[in-house]
Amino acid sequence: MAFSEKIKKWLSKYRYLSRPEDRTILLTCMGFALIFWLLVKLSQEFSASKPVELVLNIPEGKALSALPPGDIKAQLHGSGWDLAFEFLKRSRLLVPIDLTNSAHFYLSEAQLRTLIGDRINSSDLKVESVNVNGLSFDLQDKVQKKVPLLLQARIGFAAGHQQFGPIALSPDSVTVTGPAEAIANITRWTTDSVIVNDLSATLNREVRITPPPDVIRADPAKIAVTVEVEDLTEKTVYVPVRIVNSSADSLKVFPDMVQVSFVVGLSRFEDITHEDFDLVADLKDFRYKEGKNTAPLTLTRQPADIKNVNLNKRSVEFLIVK
User: Fold this and answer.
1) Which of 38, 88, 232, 234 has the most Cβ atoms closer than 10 angstroms to its Cβ?
2) Backbone angles phi, psi at 148, to 5 degrees
């Protein structure tokens, strides 16, 4: 039976209370009954779980090798009144622990219950149990060092565009601080992934670094990433053919220059000339014949930042001149 139907059924029993005064009396009686029920209930014994937060006093220049659990809870037992006042006063129990006198400190469950009991508002409340068997605290020297950042990125460019210069990170390093053993093996730090497709204009983006473990602090938490973009254009140069390993006294090559076309970034268009290429016809294993002979061409040198290189001739013809 639905809750609304139960209410209707209950109200039907009191339909004879037609006067407002009668209804007021009924509601007043119900209110007193509820208050009395609460008073009786809160006078009884209950158990309740309350979060515990450890407030650690760590010496200057020291750091914990591992942080204590963040979900410590104490099981409290007492009257409903005492528990209610305890939970109304604060949401969690703050328990101070002094670590200034020892690099290695162990706190048993019994000791922890005692410390928690000292922080309870009412002496009538008892700490029945804690959800940890004990706590170990190991202190190490706190060290700090700067390590380079490694950007995790997958960037695709729109047709006719390419990256211009290296990707800029600002800053390009982070400062990591923490216990000596944890910091010792850190040689670099990564960022969150940056994934961009069809990029056609300069990208400026704020990127978070990979979150550090609890015992390590890494600053700053965010960096600026800049990816500059430039247009691509096509260029053509004429490159002379160079003959190597020829045993003939004199050769005549046709053509003696070959057209080389390629795609290059606009910023490098004027810089690249035919002198940046080496086009070779190797005659080392070639057997000479009367009349015309053909040798394949090999591009042995070209700029590293060009693409889609094409030759209008893949071979040259030559004559042996006697």
Assistant:
1) 232
2) -70, 155
pLDDT(37) > 60: no
- The whole-number average pLDDT for the span 109-115 is 91
- The 10s digit of each residue's pLDDT in 114-161 is 998 888 877 778 888 899 998 999 999 999 999 999 999 999 999 999
Return all residues near 93 (Cβ < 8 A) that are at least 6 apart.
50, 51, 52, 53, 74, 116, 119, 120
* Nearest residue to 212 via CA among 154, 153, 144, 155: 144
DSSP 249-286: S-EEEESSEEEEEEEEEGGGTTT--GGG-EEEEE-TTP
The whole-number average pLDDT for the span 229-251 is: 87
Judged against a pLDDT cut of 70, whether residue 171 lies above it is answered with yes
* 3-state SS, residue 10: helix
Helix (H), strand (E), coil (C) string for 202-224: CEEEEEEECCCCCCCEEECCEEE
Contact between 59 and 137 under an 8 Å Cβ cutoff? The reply is: no
Q: What's the distance, CA 229 to chain centroid? A: 25
- Domains present along the chain, CATH in parentheses: 45-132 (2.170.120), 143-227 (2.170.120.40), 232-320 (2.170.120.30)
CA distance 185 to 180: 9
CB within 8 A of 272, min separation 6: which ones?
235, 237, 264, 303, 306
Rounded Cα distance between 49 and 125, Å, is 12
Distances in whole angstroms, Cα of residue 246 to Cα of each of 197, 291, 299, 300: 51, 16, 18, 17
8 Å CB contact between 230 and 164:
yes
